[in-house]
Amino acid sequence: MTTGAVISLAFALLIGLTLGALGGGGSILTLPVFVYVAGIPAQQAVAMSLVVVGATSLLGAGLHWWKGNFT
């Protein structure tokens, strides 16, 4: 695994923890990591960040549903 991949994974973990603690807004954090750390072109990074944040939100909602937090 390359140094860039390790740094990207570390930032991904940090972003995940931040999203879990504060809620939405992950695209603003994810996009610079994709572009500047992972070296992904900006157009692709925008789409990828939306998928990542959407999947994270879906997982969080699913966990809350499973725990019975929905009324």
UniProtKB/TrEMBL annotation:
Q: Name one GO cellular component term.
A: plasma membrane
List all membrane-crossing ranges: 44-66
Q: What is its main location?
A: membrane
Q: Which UniProt keywords apply?
A: Cell membrane, Membrane, Transmembrane, Transmembrane helix
**InterPro entries assigned:** TM_pro_TauE-like (IPR002781)
The answer to whether keyword Transmembrane helix applies is yes
Name its cellular compartments. Answer: Cell membrane; Membrane
Q: How does it sit in the membrane?
A: Multi-pass membrane protein
| Family as reported in the entry's similarity comment | Belongs to the 4-toluene sulfonate uptake permease (TSUP) (TC 2.A.102) family.
Name this polypeptide is given: Probable membrane transporter protein
List the source organism.
Answer: Pseudobythopirellula maris
Organism classification? Bacteria, Pseudomonadati, Planctomycetota, Planctomycetia, Pirellulales
